[in-house]
Amino acid sequence: MINKPHKKSNVVDLNQSLKDREIEIDLLQKTFAEIGSELDLDKVFQIVAERARTLVQAETLLIPLLDENCETYTYRGGSGKNSDEIVGESLPLEFGVCGWVWKHKRPWWLGVLDELSDDEKNLWEEEAGTMIMVPLQGRRHFLGGISGINKIGGGEFTRRDLNLLQMFASIVSIAIENAMAVNNMEKTRTTNDDYRMRLEVLNKQLLESSKELEYLSLYDTVTGLPNRSLFHDRLSRNISQAILAEEYIGLLLIDLNRFKEVNEALGHDRGDLLLKKIARRLERNLKSNETLARLGGDEFVIILPDCNEAQSMRRAKDLKVLLEEPFNIVNTKIVVSGSFGVAMFPVQGDDASSLLSHADSAMYEAKNNATGLCLYDPALDHMTRGHLVMVADIRRAMEERQFELYYQPKISIKDKKLIAAEALGRWVTEERGTVPPDSFIKVLEQNGLLNEYTYWAIESALQQAIIWNREYNLRVAVNLSPHTLMDPKFIENVDKIVGSKENGQYLTFEITENLFLSEYDSLKDVLEYVCQLGINLSIDDYGTGYSSLSRLIKLPVSEIKIDKSFIKNVDTNKDDEVVVKSTIDLAHNLGMTVVAEGVEDEAAMEILRKYNCDVAQGFLISRPLPASEFDQFLKDY
Ligand code: C2E
Ligand code: CA
Ligand code: CA
Predict the structure, then answer these.
(1) For ligand 1, atom 11, which residue shows the shortest CA distance?
(2) Is 3.40.605.10 the CATH number for 228-376?
(3) What's the rounded Cα separation, in Å, for the pair 204 and 186?
(4) Second label for 344, Cα 20 to 30 Å away, from 80, 161, 380, 546?
C-alpha cells in the first residue's frame, strides 16, 4: 500500500550508491505496510520491536511507554533475549537511562557521554555503548522510547544505528499513536463508521508523513543533495569497503569564498538558486561511486572512493576549475570560487569524523594560500577554524575572566585522608561548553596571555585554599608552565599575590619535569624563593622527560607525581610496574613524597598500596570538580 518512499528526483537517480540503502528501506517499508493496517496494539508493538531489533542488530529490544499517570513507564513490547521477562514491568519515571531520555527528549547513545554531568557519567559510563535509546514522539504527546540493548556479537551501537533507529522511531510513532487511538476508540465504543473513517484519515497521514520524514531526514531541502547524516552514513560505508578492498578514499571539503556577500547582494532566494546550480554542476561531474553532500551553509563535501592522494588532488583541481566558470542567475553572471581541503583515508584519519575534521583543517589552510586547494598536513593543524576563532575569543576570555578552576582531590593511600586538591583550569563558555586546558593554554601562551592567566590561577587557588583551610587541612596545587617561571617578574608577582608564609603553606606548585633539563641553573633561585614562601614544589608528569631524580634532589622539591601513562596499565604491564616501583623506592630514599596520578581503578590502587606509594589522584576517587561541588565532596568525604 505504500509507495517507494524516495522521491524519484534526478538526485536519487544520479546517486547510484543509494542502492546500499535499499535493504533498510525495504525493512522500513514492510514495517509500515504491516503496522499501518494493524489495529491490535500488542501486535503493533511486537512487529515494531522485532523490526527495530533487526535494524540495529540488538540482542534485546524494548519499548517502554509512558503510563497515563505520567509517573511510571511500562515495557509494552519487546523482542530478543530476556524480553519475555521484562515486558509488562513498570518502573518509576526517573529511573535509569529511560529517565534521562524522558527528561531530555533526546536519544541516548555513546555520543551523549561527553555532554553528561560528572555524576551522570559515573552512573552510566559503563552502559553507554551497550545501550541505545531513541524517543518516540507522537504528534501531541511524548509517548516513550525504543531501546536496544547489547549489540549482537559485542561492540557498541554506532551513530549509524542511532540515525536509523531515530528515523524508524519517527515513523512508527505515528502508527503506534494511531493504534493507541483506535484502541481508545474501541474502549469508548465509537460507532463503526466513525471508526473506519478516522482510521482511514490516520493511515493516510501515516503514509504522507513517512514519505516526508524519510526524505527530510536524509536530504538537504535546498539542493536535494544528501545531508550531513546521509553523508556520514555513506562515508562510513565507503570506509568499511575500503578496509576490505585495501583502497584509499579521498575526502574533499569545499567551502565557497565570500558566499555570504553574494547571498546578501543577490537576496536569499537567489542565493538558494545559486546553491542549487552549484549542486547540479558538481553532481553532473561526479563518477557513479562518488557522493556529493551539502553539510550546511556554503559547505559541500565529496567522497572519492578508491582514489589515492595524487588522484584526489587532481580531482579537486578539476572540480575547482569547473566551479569557477560563471553561473547565470536571472540574467546575471556570477562567478564563485571555493576553498578546497582534502584529507586521505586511511593515512589522515581512519573514521568518518576525523577525516572530516582534517579535511576541514585543510580547507581552512586553503583559505589562506594562493591556490585555494590544500591537502591535510598535521603540522598546520593549528590553523584550523577552532584555533582561529579561539584566538579572537581568548583575549575577551581573559579580560572577562571566563576561566574557572576545577579541583581534583589527592588522597593519602595509607589512611585515605584527603590531603590536597589540584586546581585544573577550565574555560567555560556558552558556545563551546567547557574547554579543557590542553586546548587553551597553548593559545594563551601564543598570545602572550599565559602569565596573566597563571597569576590569576594562583590567586584564585589561594583564595579558595584559605576558605577551605578554615575547616579542613589541605593544600591546593596550581600548575605552572615553564613559560611563567621564566618571567623576570615572577618573584615580584608571586610575592604580591601570596605575600607570606602563612599563605604559602596552603599552596603547591606543580612544574613539569621537562623544564629542568635545560633551565636548571637559572631556575634554582626562583624555586628557592618559592620554597622560602612555604610553597611546596611538585614535579609533574614524572617519567615522561629525561631528568634524573638524583639531579632533582638538588632543587627544593618535596613531591613527585608519576605520570598517568605509567599508572593506567600498571596492573597489566610489567614494564610500567617496574618503573612505578623503582621510582617510588628511589624517591623515598631521597625524602620525597610520591603521588600517582590517573588512578582509575582498584587494581591500580592495590599495586600502589603494595609499593607504598603515598598519595593517589584520579577518577577512581573523583573527577575534577567545580569549587562548589568540591565543597560538597569535602563535606561528604
Ligand atoms: P596534569 O597536570 O597532568 O593534570 C592531570 C590531568 O589528568 C587533568 O587533565 C585531569 O583531569 C586528568 N586526570 C585526572 N585523573 C585522571 C584519571 O584517573 N584518568 C585520566 N585519564 N586522566 C585523569 P586536565 O584537567 O585536562 O588538564 C590537562 C593538563 O593541562 C594538566 O595536566 C596540566 O598540565 C595542564 N593544566 C591544567 N590547568 C592548568 C593551569 O591552570 N595552568 C597551566 N599552566 N596548566 C594547566
Ligand atoms: Ca598537574
Ligand atoms: Ca600530570
Answers:
(1) 624
(2) no
(3) 20
(4) 161
Nearest-CA residue for atom 35 of ligand 1: 437
Distance 621 CA to ligand 3 centre (A): 16
Which of 452, 454, 458, 479 best tests ligand 1's pocket when mutated (most atoms within 8 Å of CB)?
Answer: 479
Ligand 1 within 6 A of CB of 246: no
- Arch. (CATH architecture) of 23-189: 2-Layer Sandwich (3.30)
Strand partners, 91: 73
Ligand 2 centroid – CA 294 distance (Å)? 43
Per-residue pLDDT of 30-40, as tens digits, reads 777 777 667 67
For residue 129, give every residue at least 6 positions away whose Cβ sits within 8 Å of its Cβ, in sequence order, or none: 110, 155, 156, 157
Confirm or reject: Cβ of 598 under 6 Å from ligand 1. Answer: yes
Q: What are all long-range contacts of 461-470, with beta carbons under 8 Å and residues at least 24 apart?
A: 461/405, 461/423, 461/507, 462/497, 462/498, 462/503, 462/506, 462/507, 464/405, 464/407, 464/423, 464/627, 465/506, 465/507, 466/503, 466/506, 468/421, 468/631, 468/634, 469/506
Closest protein CA for atom 21 of ligand 1 = 598
The answer, as to whether pTM is greater than 0.70, is: no
Q: Is the CB of 624 under 6 A from ligand 1?
A: yes
Residue scoring higher pLDDT (24 or 364): 364
Residue type, 197: M
- What separation in Å is there between the alpha carbon of 542 and the centre of ligand 1? 13
> Which ligand 1 atom is at minimum distance from the Cα of 437?
30
Contact by Cβ (8 Å): 368, 362? no
Within 8 A by CB and 6+ apart from 587, the residues are: 549, 560, 593, 594
CATH annotation of 402-636:
3.20.20.450
**Where exactly are the structural domains of the chain?**
23-189, 228-376, 402-636
Does ligand 1 have an atom closer than 6 angstroms to the CB of 485?
no
d(CA 234, CA 213): 19
Quick: pLDDT tens for 421-430: 999 999 988 7
DSSP one-letter string for 70-114: SSEEEEEEEEETTHHHHTT-EEETTSHHHHHHHHHTS-BSGGGGG
State if residue 275 touches ligand 1 by the CB under 6 angstroms criterion.
no
